[in-house]
Amino acid sequence: MSSGSVNTERHPVEFIHSTSEAGSTLLPSSSRWNSIELDYFTFFPPSLSTYNSLPSRFSKSIRFNLFITDKKLFKRFLYISTLLIFLIISLILLIHFLPLKNRHHPPSKKNLTLALKQALTFFDAQKSGMYPKNNRVKFRGDSGLEDGKFGGRESDEDVVGNNIKFSFPTAYTITLLSWSVIEYHQKYSEIGEVDHVKDIIKWGAHYLLKLFVGTAGNDTKTPNDMNCWERPEDMDYKRPVSYCDISKASDLAGEMVAALSAASLVFKQEEAVFSEKLVQTAEKLFELILESTTKKDDEYCSGIEARKFYNSSGYLDELVLLSRLQMFNDLGFPYEDAMSESTTMINSLMCSYVLAPNFNTTFTPGGLLVQRVEDGASLLELAATASFLSKLYSDYLQAIRRSGGRCSSSTTTTHHQSFSTQMLTNFSKSQVNYILGDNPMKMSYMVGFGGKYPTQVHHRSASIPWDGHRYTCEDGHKWLNSKDLNPNILVGAMVAGPDQTDEFLDQRDKPWFTQPTISSNAGLVAALIALHDPPLTSAHSSSPNLGLDILGLFENIKL
């Protein structure tokens, strides 16, 4: 390079790097090798190392002839390069540490096998009746042995919730757990939990069988169950039964039919007699529903107070099953219109999950799905169920080699929007990851999972010491209002979780944050098994490896 004021004289720089005949060096001698040009321009002071004269370990001598024509331009180049590198590093750090708003969380690797095993363990802590001696939860025992006397028969296998046995969430729980086993039986078997989940389903199914003796039972009418903070093992007050006529509680009866029917498929192969009993009871109950009105329970139903706690909200969950029927068991004429309509509705539901806010769906700032806020429902329960449905529907589509689906057109758009199976899977993972710790509170909302989780769970058995002493209702309230940690860890319990701003208070006397339920955990179990890696298959298999039982659910349907 040359210009009027620039010294154009070339300055050759030579350096020969060689090794001794011995072919080895005691210490490195590369400092001058890499800094010869910088030394020439006095960027750094001359090296004070005494090792520069030692032999090199390189086997050949190399001659370098480096020519730099303008020292100022060269220095400027170095300064600018250093500044650019600094700016790039600063930008990367800034992006990394800035909080993400209204976005799903990036994929986070969680131990889904451990989470699933723990979530199932929660149900063992909820059992009422003669407590199994080999049960995994050691702070529980026999309870409620005088409950549920239907037709002179005592209940020996029941499910306890808020010390009240609610039939609706029990039926829903058994339906959802059975559904997950029917779909992902291979996955449960692969991780060694198929017998465990079937034991939970069987326990609940026995309870539902006892409810149907001419009427559908609903144990709800004892106020002491709500006002008394006492372990189930210590209950000694009267616990009467309230009931609803089927004509006044068709929604409850319908959920019971679904639970009994789904459970019958779970036990069809190994326990045919028990499975047939479930089918027969479901058929009788269904016939009574068809003969009755379609009203929900009203003032003529003594169990109407249960609706304050657990209410039915819709049937979109079940429409996933109709979509499955259309995909894998095409019934043809005259069912096309009905099947097509159900698929359209499910596609719209999926779009509401992954294409918000275009479909009037909102999320918390941390990425948790927000639904049915007006009902006071747990955001985590609804998010877990949505996670299950989205991953299951993604598996359905992949099984028939479809890449996604289309949403119905709306009044605000002139074109159809679409979603992919990957979008559904990403959404499903984001909700489970949020529950397990990827949230603004940096807390797992499932007890026992991760390094930080709720310690004041709103749960009688977990909050009162298991020390061989009996505690009355009055005794129990000191633990309800205590700020101490629960003496018993309720492993696997998913609490109600945060509010719409991602805030969470770990306080036992605030059940809208810290209360777990069997219906919530059922949704979490279903989501976890859906997201779990499928079993390994043969490398020669041409079918997608989804861990999904394609034909098992509707194998008996014939035209």
TrEMBL record:
Pfam families in the cross-refs: Glyco_hydro_9
Segments forming domain Glycoside hydrolase family: 115-320
Taxonomy, superkingdom: Eukaryota
Documented EC number(s): 3.2.1.4
InterPro entries: 6-hairpin_glycosidase_sf (IPR008928), 6hp_glycosidase-like_sf (IPR012341), Glyco_hydro_9 (IPR001701), Glyco_hydro_9_His_AS (IPR018221)
Active site per database record: 458
Example GO molecular function: cellulase activity
Chain segments annotated as transmembrane: 77-98
UniProt keyword Transmembrane helix, yes or no: yes
Record family assignment: Belongs to the glycosyl hydrolase 9 (cellulase E) family.
Protein name per UniProt: Endoglucanase
